[in-house]
Amino acid sequence: MALSTSTTLVNALAARRGSIETARGVKIASMLFVTVLTAAAAQISVPLPFTAVPFTLQPMVVLLGALALGSRLGAASQILYLAAGIAGLPVFAASGILPPGPLRLLGPTGGYLMAYPLAAFLTGYLAERGFDRRYLTSIVAMLAGLAVIYAIGVTWLGVFARPLEGAAPGMSVAALTGIYPFIVPDLIKIAVAAGLVPALWQLFGRSE
Length: 208
What we know:
Blueprint: H1 9-15, H2 20-42, H3 58-69, H4 71-86, H5 110-131, H6 135-159, H7 171-178, H8 183-193, H9 196-204
Helix pairs in contact: 1-2, 2-3, 2-4, 3-4, 3-5, 3-6, 4-5, 5-6, 6-7, 6-8
């Protein structure tokens, strides 16, 4: 598969809208939709007794959105999401430790949240190189983004935060509580979601 620059699904759909203004509106609306969807996914939060990191649907939404939006729009959707959370809007997952607002980024999940724009950019970058056209390559693109989320999230958890109440920061405990409980669920979510964008390409056709 060639790694030359390719259009994304959202860009292809926007190009069909005719005028430049309408195409720009489609892109902005799509970006805002992913931002809102990320916030909505955060509300589906399941606290786990053995870790300070809850189970949410956010990683799947972040990566799937980036697969459709591309690198810049994908990252922008997550930067906007973080900005809304920092401003105090109730867009982050529920927490019994920290209130809404910028302090949430200093908590156990702060690294995961701050990783979203970078993960979206990487997955979107691969989508711009045709990884979004087939199921298996879509999985690869989403796994690359998930690796970024895990790497930054667990590093933050191990170095700056406390992975468990009363526990000292440490990478081994951080990996035990910040990666291992989520690997299988995240792989299942990606396996299910990765077929959506290739299916939409088949439905709407490819625009180069």
